[in-house]
Design brief:
With 387 residues, the chain is α/β, with parallel strands linked by helices. The chain has 10 helices and 16 strands.
Amino acid sequence: MREILAELVECWSAGEPVALGTVVATFGSAPRQPGASMLVRRSGAVTGSVSGGCVEGAVYERADEVLRGAAPALERYGFSDEDAFAVGLTCGGILDIYVQRISRESFPELAEVAADVAAGRPVAVATVVEHPDPAVLGRHLVVRPRDTSARVVGALGSLRLAEAIATDAQGLLATGQSGTLTYGADGERLGKGARVFVWAAAPPPRMLVFGAIDYASAVAQMGSFLGYDVTVCDARPVFATASRFPAADRVVVSWPHKFLAEEVEAGRVDESTVICVLTHDPKFDGPLLELALRLPSVGYIGAMGSRKTHADRTQRLRAAGLTQAELDRMSSPIGLDLAARTPEETAVSIAAEILARRGGATGLPLRELHSPIHAERPRSIPEESIA
């Protein structure tokens, strides 16, 4: 929903009701993930996408009906052998899409949610998308982390349901995952009849790029494009300047290992953090990698250099006491084999390896594989069709 949030808030602030279609669950090779949204205004203008084009027309029609007063609707769109090119997904996947009307009256907390997202504060919005009581449909619960004073706001008509959703939504928020939860009508955890979609807006993952070189500028730009919060760090102030790295969110002048230690101490390095070591200098990358490879949880650690550089670096790290298991966490030479030479090509190679590592993928050409293109992820949603 991030891609349409600014326009959604603009309409909300102006008192203009809009219709919002949101992917709340997927099955098979679905083109978009839960949280992807499409906004439809009274003028007919559309922002965002829920399927990359497959079912946008049908969702648009339902959104127009909701804008004109129809009840919110949870629709399932999937592959049809009889008419695969009508309303369905030619990729063979299934999407559950919830279409609702958003206004200042129906969602009074929206401005505060948008402020949290803009400031990088974790916040989740739980929306009832299926319930035996039509009056409960579309109600929202705004959930924040346990350590904030304004933890939960909103009302769902059932204290038990609200408490169950708040607890589970905080769990999703902690991992930055959005998904659909299933309960009984009064919040029974093993029951059925109520489905709640939780959109979790956690701060973006971080990319730490060490070494203020031309390759770092391209990697920072690629990281920003992929949605990372990018920091470039180098101990040399003449090179580590904001003007040389316009795509970075911040440029830090510090010894790399000292900066990383400070970030770890502050709790700003976790399993989603990506570390790219592009320094090429043992006095910088040695202490940095000694620290990075011993961290309990980091998403990716890559180090640039030739195979000779890698062999020398590995020998020094082993002499410093690192185990083979710790050394195996390092992607070096960094990137996938794409015949990359320029900084931009190298950045694509590095990004491709990060994506493959993050998703547990092979990095092989899709035509050589026979598994689903979009791997299934566990979801707490029922498999039966929606009536």
